[in-house]
């Protein structure tokens, strides 16, 4: 992405936005949210190149500036919250798109949080507090990890697969932990996920239900009413048996869960949710027997590492085992269709 028309065209793929030329100097173009008129991208020519000003989370501001010489404190805007991207070919297009997407998310009309940061943070902290003593003793081993051939537990669940933006930093952190605890079971990249809803819980010998088609139709109807949303992954916690990366989500995830509960009930389809799912964590490792060095493990966990933000455009219905290492993807469901989704699919 180096031309102004490319930048404008990509920005216009976001829902409910429009381009505007508010200045006498028509080389400046801004992209606004229709409802609030807020600007999320300032596109202009400067020093022989196209520049884009984008809003950024202060926690990520310096990361982008240090990662790329062509991402600098914003020209003519508050440099605490805005960066300028110089489109000189040195910043990968996927990163430009990511920064524009983050600016869009940060400036759009705020919805009620699906799970408030404080409530989720307390939940994750409490998991660790409840299990710290057990971890000091080495944790609780999972015998099925040592004899997986005898594990016939299968379940039907709706999942969100983690995207590369967050997967790569998480995998890097897992490698750091592996230096201390090499014998843990580490989830491979393709198995990393977040559970939206456990529909039919894991039971030995469970088979794909004969009314799977009804589930697919019902879930599809629920998903198309939900707009794409974002999840921030920040921090690591642990139970007595698992290591979890903590997720903080927009209201779309909560809306999706509530829609599914209502929709499945109305359709007369079984939902074996033992309790209302609130968390948005991703399990990244499990303890097969016991920790080899509990004291050293507890120097690494909890961790406040920031892993990044991902945008959720679709969800997957999966028939899988406890660890997602054996799975059949029954269906993929796009969230509410919009022009941006169609554009990214075409790319």
Quick recap:
This protein is α+β, with helices and mostly antiparallel strands. It is built from 9 helices and 15 strands.
Key phrases:
globular; about 30% strand; five-stranded antiparallel beta sheet; 9 helices; 2 domains; disordered C terminus; alpha+beta; about 350 residues; single chain
Structural class: alpha+beta
Number of helix segments?
9
Rg, Å, rounded: 22 Å
Q: Give me the side-by-side strand order of the main sheet.
A: 1-2-3-4-6-5
Order of helices and strands: HEEEEHEEHHEHEEHEEHEHEEEH
User: Roughly what is the average pLDDT, rounded to an integer?
Assistant: 90
Q: What's the CATH architecture name of the largest domain?
A: Alpha-Beta Complex
Ranges where pLDDT stays below 50 over 5 or more residues in a row are 338-347
What is the CATH topology classification name of the largest domain? Cyclic Phosphodiesterase, Chain: A
CATH class of the largest domain, named Alpha Beta
Walk me through this protein's architecture.
This protein has 347 residues and is of the alpha+beta class. The chain contains nine helices and 15 strands. The strands form three sheets. Strands 1-2-3-4-6-5 form a six-stranded antiparallel sheet, covered by helices on one side. A five-stranded antiparallel sheet has the order 8-12-11-10-13.
């Amino acid at each position: 992405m180096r031309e102004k028309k490319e930048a404008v065209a990509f920005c216009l793929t976001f829902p409910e936005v429009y381009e505007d030329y508010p200045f006498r100097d028509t080389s400046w173009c801004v992209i606004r949210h229709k409802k609030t008129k807020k600007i999320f991208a300032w596109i202009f020519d400067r020093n022989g190149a196209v520049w884009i000003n984008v809003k950024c989370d202060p926690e990520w501001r310096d990361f982008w500036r240090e990662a790329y010489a062509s991402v600098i404190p914003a020209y003519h805007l508050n440099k605490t919250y805005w960066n300028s991207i110089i489109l000189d070919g040195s910043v990968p297009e996927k990163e430009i798109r990511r920064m524009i997407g983050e600016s869009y998310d940060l400036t759009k009309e705020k919805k009620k949080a699906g799970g408030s940061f404080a409530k989720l943070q307390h939940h994750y902290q409490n998991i660790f507090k409840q299990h710290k003593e057990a971890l000091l003793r080495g944790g609780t081993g999972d015998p099925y990890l040592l004899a997986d051939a005898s594990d016939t537990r299968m379940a039907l669940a709706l999942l969100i697969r983690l995207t590369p933006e967050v997967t790569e930093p998480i995998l890097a952190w897992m490698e750091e932990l592996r230096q201390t605890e090499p014998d843990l079971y580490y989830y491979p990249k393709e198995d990393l996920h977040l559970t939206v809803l456990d529909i039919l819980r894991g039971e030995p010998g469970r088979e794909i239900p004969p009314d799977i088609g009804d589930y697919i139709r019902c879930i599809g109807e629920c998903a198309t009413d939900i707009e794409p949303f974002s999840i921030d992954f920040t921090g690591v916690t642990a139970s007595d048996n698992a290591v979890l990366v903590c997720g903080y989500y927009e209201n779309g995830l909560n809306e999706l869960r509530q829609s599914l509960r209502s929709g499945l009930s109305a359709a007369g389809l079984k939902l074996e949710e033992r309790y209302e799912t609130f968390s948005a964590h991703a399990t990244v490792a499990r303890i097969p027997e016991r920790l080899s060095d509990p004291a050293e493990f507890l120097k690494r966990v909890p961790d406040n590492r920031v892993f990044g933000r991902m945008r959720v455009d679709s969800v997957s219905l999966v028939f899988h085992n406890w660890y997602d290492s054996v799975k059949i993807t029954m269906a993929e469901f796009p969230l509410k269709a919009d022009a941006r989704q169609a554009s990214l699919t075409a790319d």
